[in-house]
Design brief:
110 residues; two-stranded antiparallel sheet; 5 helices; mainly alpha
Length: 110
């Protein structure tokens, strides 16, 4: 009997469509990780958001190829939905309160 070792979720997008999100296959995960490495070089929020959108576009190649274009993604998802997609598909946790607190402490905001 097979055992599932990963999380699968169904998300409703802003345009009313639903997608099933599960971990990426290794080919797509490698692409996401290459793009995600660019986040350390982002100098402002706009550049960081572009990196998040590019990572989400790569994930959409697997889940919803018809939405894998940057313009389509910008119309179909909000920030929290994008965070959840990246969390489930690539194990990138962007809204973890512990990580946010640590980043703020490093930035001297606390």
């Amino acid at each position: 009997m097979a055992t599932t070792v990963y999380e699968t979720i169904e998300l409703e997008l802003l345009d009313g469509r639903s997608i099933v999100v599960k971990p990426l296959n290794l080919k797509n995960l490698r692409e996401v990780m290459k793009e995600w490495q660019k986040a350390t070089d982002a100098t402002n929020e706009d550049e960081f958001l572009d990196i998040l959108i590019n990572c989400t576009a790569i994930a959409f190649k697997q889940f919803a190829p018809d939405l894998a274009e940057k313009d389509e993604i910008e119309e179909a998802v909000d920030l929290q939905t994008m965070y959840k997609i990246l969390e489930v598909s690539a194990d990138i946790r962007l809204n973890d309160p512990n990580l946010v607190a640590a980043a703020q402490e490093l930035a001297g905001r606390i």
